[in-house]
Amino acid sequence: MDVIDEQRQLRRQISRMSDQDILEFAQQQPGGVEALVDLTINGMPSVLDPPAAEDCVIGYEISVPAGTLAYRIEVKAGQATAEHRDPDDARVILQLAAADYLRLICGLIDGTEAFMSGKMRIRGDVMFAPRVGVMFRTP
Q1: Which domain holds residue 19?
Q2: 8 A C-beta contact, residue 14 and residue 33
Q3: Partners of 122 in the beta sheet?
Q4: Distance of CA 112 to CAs 55, 94, 122, 126, 127, Å?
Q5: 118: Cβ–Cβ under 8 A, 6 or more apart, which residues?
Q6: What is the pLDDT confidence band of residue 1, given thresholds at 50, 70 and 90?
Q7: What is the pTM of this model?
């Protein structure tokens, strides 16, 4: 199964769940919430749309019950790499709760909707943030 298929499956599983239900679902996965978030972040290079890609560093700070998970995604020459580390050099950092992050990456909400509703905070280049969603395919 490829990453898009996995996103579709995740979308079906969480589509009508509350935040608490999503967290409970994630906790039941092998390795819990952190492992599920890691899995989705590590899948981002395979859903990069090279023609839409722009060289940049994108950061994610995802709130989970145990704290905040920090990630750095580097896009360069139509390729992406993902690391579980502080995104201190990121052009933009997207901050979300785990449930909203999972909704975002599987296409249940879009970035603008998440930002406008207060579910996502943006640090750094706010004008660049909408282009992040264009670079990565969702189901």
Answers
A1: 3-135
A2: no
A3: 94
A4: 21, 12, 11, 11, 11
A5: none
A6: low
A7: 0.93
